[in-house]
Specification:
mainly alpha; 104 residues; binds heme C
């Protein structure tokens, strides 16, 4: 009895926490203009974030490389169009965004 009483608030707190952190990452991507060039499911100017996630699946060193590329810009991986530098994105924000992208 006691266990169920404890479990229900615990599980709902966990659910609220996870859905909020997912939204926070998408909101950050929106506020940094990433979603102007990247769709989550579809290519716009840059590749779909789900395609990026699929490409780097299981590659542990990808986060650092991609976070640096997000900040400095880069080209040559997905096609002829380069990604311009995203100067207003801090190192920490770039890492959060890349981890979110790779989790899609
Ligand atoms: C002006 C358009 C534009 C904006 C804004 C933009 N990107 Fe990109 N992004 C691109 C293009 C184009 C590519 C493909 C570059 C290439 O082929 O190497 C790309 C590639 C990427 C990649 C994959 C890189 C690789 O080497 O595979 C990631 C991850 C990424 N972008 C994340 C972001 C994030 C996060 C933001 C927001 C801070 C962002 N992008 C903002 C256009 C954009």
């Amino acid at each position: 009895m006691l266990k169920t009483k404890l479990l229900i608030p615990l599980v709902s707190a966990l659910l609220i926490f996870t859905s909020q952190s997912l939204m926070a990452d998408e909101a950050l991507a929106r506020s940094k203009n990433c979603l102007a060039c990247h769709g989550i499911d579809n290519k716009i100017v840059g590749p779909a974030f789900k395609d990026v996630a699929a490409k780097y699946k299981g590659d542990a060193s990808a986060v650092a490389t991609l976070a640096a590329k997000v900040r400095k810009g880069g080209s040559g991986v997905w096609g002829a169009i380069p990604m311009p530098p995203n100067g207003s994105t801090s190192e920490a924000e770039a890492e959060i965004l890349v981890k979110w992208v790779l989790s899609l």
